[in-house]
Every structure is written in C-alpha cells, then in structure tokens.
Amino acid sequence: MSSPKTAALGNRLGALSMFSAILLVLIYNKIIDLPLLWIAILIGAVIGYYMAIKVSMIQMPQMVALLNGLGGWASAFVALVVVLESYTQLGLFSKFTSQLALVVGSVTLSGSIIAAAKLDRRISQQPVIIKGHNLFNFLCLTALTCLVIAGSLCSAQAAGIISLIVIIISLVFGLLFSIRVGGADMPITISLLNSCSGLAGAICGLTIADPLLVGVGAIVGAAGIILTGIMCKAMNRSLLAVLSGSTSVQINGKQESIEATSGSGERKDVPVLDVKTVMKEAENVIIVPGYGMALAQAQGQVKRLLDLLEKQGKDVKFAIHPVAGRMPGHMNVLLAEVDVPYDQLWEMDQINTEFKETDAAVVIGACDVVNPAAISMEGTPIYGMPILRVDQAKNIVVCNKDLEPGYSGVPNPLYEQSNVLLMLGNAADTLDQIIDDLKE
C-alpha cells in the first residue's frame, strides 16, 4: 500500500483478508452453513461491487465518507442486538462498552452522511453554525454521558429503551458535529471519522469479547487519528479549531468572506501567446494540482502535458499540498490513476524551496493551498496555514475555473501578481489549449 504501483494488489489482498476473517468468524462460531448469512453476504457484495464501478474518481471522497459511516453503524447495530438479546448475560464492562459502541457508531454514521453530502454539494460546504450550537453540543454530550452510565446499571427492559434514546441523541450530535466543519477541512474530517469507525469496531469487539474485532478496529482507529494529526499539522491548526468551524469568519453572527487587500480581484485573461511563450522557454516546471483538477477530470490532460514537456527536455515536478482535494492523498490517487510516476510527486516541505528557481509554475484548480493571504493577511481563516510558495516562481500559469475564493472564503492575491498568466475556464479545456500550442 506504500506505492501506487502495488496499491491495487494491496487493496485486493485487503479484501481477501477481510473475506477470510469473515469465514474464520463463521467457522469459529459454527454458523457457516446458515443460508441467511450467505444471502446477506451476497447482497452486500453485489451492492458494494455496483457502487465501486459506478462511482467516479471525483466521487471517491464521498464514497470513503459513506463507508466510514456504514462501518460505524455496523458496530452500533451489533451492539444494539447484543443489548436487546443478551443484556442479562453481560457483565458490567460489556454493558458499558455496548452503550459506548452505540454512541461512537451512531455519531460516525450521521457525521459521515453530512460529510458526504457536503462533499457532493448536496448541502452548503461552508460551515453551518446554528444559534446555540455549543450549548446543543454540550447538552448532547451531557445527556449521552448520563445515559451510557444508566444503560450500564439498569434492567434489561430499561436498557433497550435507553439504547434507542442513545442512538437518537448520538445521531443528532453527529449531525451537529459535522455540519459546522467547512469544506476546506473535509480531509481532516474524513480522517477523524475513519478513526471513529475503527474505534466503534474495537469497542464493539470488547462488548462481544472478540479479540479479532478489537485488534482490527484498534488498528483502523489508530491509523485514522495519526493521519488526522498529520493533516492538522499540515494546516497549522488544532483539531478543536477545525471542529469549531473556524474556516469561516464570524462577523455579527454571520459568515462573511474577507476582501483581499491587494487589488480589485478583476483581471482580464492574458493572451494565450504569452502562456505559450512562457511554457516553451521554461526549462523547469512545477505543476500544482488542486480540487479543480478533480472536478474537471483533467488528470488525463495533466499526464499528456507532463509527457510533452519531458519530451521537450524540460524538468517537471508535481507539488502536492497535504490537504489538496477532499480527502487525504486525493491528488496522489488521481495522478496515479493516469500513471504519473510517484517519484515526481513532491510534498510541500520538500519542494517549497525550489519555487524561487522555477521558470514556470502551473496551477491547476488550486486556490487556498497557494493563497499568499495565509502568510500576509492576519485575521483571515487561513492565516498561518502552510502553503505552496507558488507566488515565488518566476512565471505562474493559473488554470482555474474563475477568480472566486476557495472554500475558506478568502480572495487570492496571487491572481494580482504581474507574473501571473490567467487561463480561466474548465481545466481540461485550458490544458488542451496549452498542449496544442506546445506541439506547434
């Protein structure tokens, strides 16, 4: 899984290992010959296969978010069945973990659904902060704490009722928790929800005394929280700041974007001839992909541009920001899909020092991760966030759809620099235009 060249095989081995684990559990519990179980497995496999072949690469973040939610809900459902059918046979520890699994699993489900809806533009991608948001969160957490304790000490009949109430409040809390996170922070949110799905599985494993489930869940939970920490560090922000929805600026209780101080934000497109000249004369080029590349499905054109530039003897590298896209490694996945060599993908810390010596930087659908406001404009939501120093390149070609701000709502002063050449529109079309010009 550490290399795109072997990642597909790694995924197949993972799927095979999961199926083997299912068989092991069925054999161990002597229920492998139950027809109903195999019917359920077949239905799940067909649904999963259909989703996998229908979902495009641009929709993969939504897919990951939904799978996180389903993983958490599966754990919560198992815990609910245990409570309803075997509560009197459980010890105090198992009763407590069963209620805890309901909480974590349900929060993961509703939080993941909201995250997927934001990613798919079904609801606003800006942070949604309702009146009394913090108070509602506090009340939900307080109620859940009391109910988990009560559900561990009460009678079997009362435990069933309490468990249903726990599920409802947890679903509400997951919604409140996820809806206030902005679209720009979705990579962090998905990592955290992934960790929660593993944690729910591990807690459920403690409830049913299944060491395999505890181990696998703990691995997923630990990997998710480690990745969450890495993403927060990459953005130079705390997890608390992300979860509080601070990607937006609160002015008089409303979300408002901040106006850039470097210009009017209006600029006419530079003639393609200038872009053509810059690209032809450049000896070294750094390509910076962003979410706009994913939206335009322009990774194929990016690979064609890479091949053409290298054929002309130019040195080409890719600069990858840790939170570019809508899930961790989003740009890496898209570029690997079209066979861009992995050794040409450079992380932010490795490549930032090279922009000063770069003849041409090509920005493809990226905004916040190359926004100099993160360095110069105090009080903006992205101030202090490490960025790719595209602004230091000798010449900059921006292939973005428009000049609108990114998800942070902060206008990008980069567009006003005198060495920036704008090619606005669909990235796939503008890249085709650059490729055609370079072929002449």
What does this structure look like?
This protein is an alpha/beta fold and 440 residues long. The protein contains 16 helices and eight strands. The strands form two sheets. It has a six-stranded parallel sheet. Strands 1-2 form a two-stranded antiparallel sheet. Helix 3 (60-86) runs antiparallel to helix 4 (92-119) and helix 4 runs antiparallel to helix 5 (133-153). The longest helix is centred in the N-terminal third of the chain and has 28 residues, at 92-119. The chain starts with a helix and ends with a helix. The model is unreliable at 247-273 (pLDDT under 50).
Gist of the model:
This protein is α/β, with parallel strands linked by helices and 440 residues long.
Features:
440 residues, alpha/beta, six-stranded parallel sheet, two-stranded antiparallel sheet, 16 helices
Describe the SSE topology.
Layout: H1 4-28, H2 35-54, H3 60-86, H4 92-119, H5 133-153, H6 156-179, H7 186-207, H8 211-235, H9 239-243, E1 249-251, E2 254-256, H10 272-281, E3 284-289, H11 291-296, H12 299-311, E4 315-320, H13 330-337, E5 345-347, H14 348-351, E6 360-364, H15 373-376, E7 396-399, E8 420-422, H16 427-439
Parallel strand pairs: 3-4, 3-6, 4-5, 6-7, 7-8
Antiparallel strand pairs: 1-2
Helix pairs in contact: 3-4, 3-6, 3-7, 4-5, 4-6, 4-7, 5-6, 7-8, 10-16, 12-16
Number of strands: 8
Regions with pLDDT < 50 over 5+ consecutive residues? 247-273
Number of helices: 16
Helix proportion of residues, in percent?
A: 55-70%
Give the overall pLDDT as a whole number. 85
| Gap between N and C termini | 41 Å
Strand order across the largest sheet: 5-4-3-6-7-8
Radius of gyration equals: 25 Å
